[in-house]
Amino acid sequence: MSRAGLDKNPREVAEMFDGVAKGYDRTNSVMTMGFDRRWREWSRRVLDARPGEKVLDLAAGTAVSTVEYAATGAWCVAADFSLGMLQTGAHRQVPKVAADAMRLPFADDSFDAVTVSFGIRNFHDPEAALREMARVVRPGGRVVVCEVSTPTFRPFRFVYKRYLLWILPFISRFVSSNPEAYKYLAESMRTWPDQREFGEIVARAGWEDVAWMNLTGGLVALHRATKPTGNPATKSTEKPTDKTADKPA
Ligand SMILES: C[S@@+](CC[C@H](N)C(=O)[O-])C[C@H]1O[C@@H](n2cnc3c(N)ncnc32)[C@H](O)[C@@H]1O
């Protein structure tokens, strides 16, 4: 079965997720030892969607994250380019759209917020995708990105980076139908920028007030930012910052 390369060819990425779609939710829970649920809760809190708001959950996969956000009363749509992933989540009662993050089929300024969880690392060009996200969000709207990141405790960081490539594919042999895909997962995690570097990418893509929060010791980070309103009085000159404590609940 197929796996994508680190050039993140969109066709290969979509095929790879089609291939793991059936067991995705279960494998994800096993591989994260159930932490995925907690990370999703934190994403919902930071997204802070209100009833009546329109939220785009990009790279939503089986829409497991979308239903979490929809519980707030906001209108949430799941978008993903893997039909296999969307079909696997067909039982989840949220609207779903087949869409490539690099060219979204939505009008300018049509959402109050956009969010991506564990998806942006797979995009061919994350910075261009962040610009595309800014296009579809209204001025003053938010982006929240939940993604694997760099552990903050240095000795653990060393072990994590060194053995990740070996351990993840090994465990996946027992729980996934496509262990090759988990080799890609480990490689893409190892080469993904750390919290600060990714914050700078978000800012370069045109978002402001960029901040991040470490979850589970930095294994995962939540970045959030705001789309500029164009009003010079509210224009932020801040650099990306880690404004929050490194302590999940
Ligand atoms: C690891 S899954 C995450 C799914 C879900 N957000 C979650 O938290 O469980 C990554 C998803 O990103 C999607 N994806 C990757 N590149 C994409 C792109 N360019 N456009 C749309 N979806 C994309 C894949 O199809 C896959 O469903």
TrEMBL record:
Alphabetized PROSITE patterns for the sequence: SAM_MT_UBIE, UBIE_2
InterPro entries assigned: SAM-dependent_MTases_sf (IPR029063), UbiE/COQ5_MeTrFase (IPR004033), UbiE/COQ5_MeTrFase_CS (IPR023576)
Domain of life of the source: Bacteria
Gene Ontology biological process terms, A to Z: menaquinone biosynthetic process; methylation
Binding annotation for S-adenosyl-L-methionine: T62, D80, D100, A101, S117
Protein name, as recorded: Demethylmenaquinone methyltransferase
Catalytic activity: a 2-demethylmenaquinol + S-adenosyl-L-methionine = a menaquinol + S-adenosyl-L-homocysteine + H(+)
Record keywords, A-Z: Menaquinone biosynthesis, Methyltransferase, S-adenosyl-L-methionine, Transferase
Region listing for Disordered, in residue ranges: 225-249
Keyword Methyltransferase: yes
Gene Ontology molecular-function annotations: demethylmenaquinone methyltransferase activity
Broad class of enzyme this protein falls into: transferase
Function description: Methyltransferase required for the conversion of demethylmenaquinol (DMKH2) to menaquinol (MKH2).
Gene giving rise to this polypeptide: menG
Family per record: Belongs to the class I-like SAM-binding methyltransferase superfamily. MenG/UbiE family.
Taxonomic lineage of the native organism: Bacteria, Bacillati, Actinomycetota, Actinomycetes, Pseudonocardiales
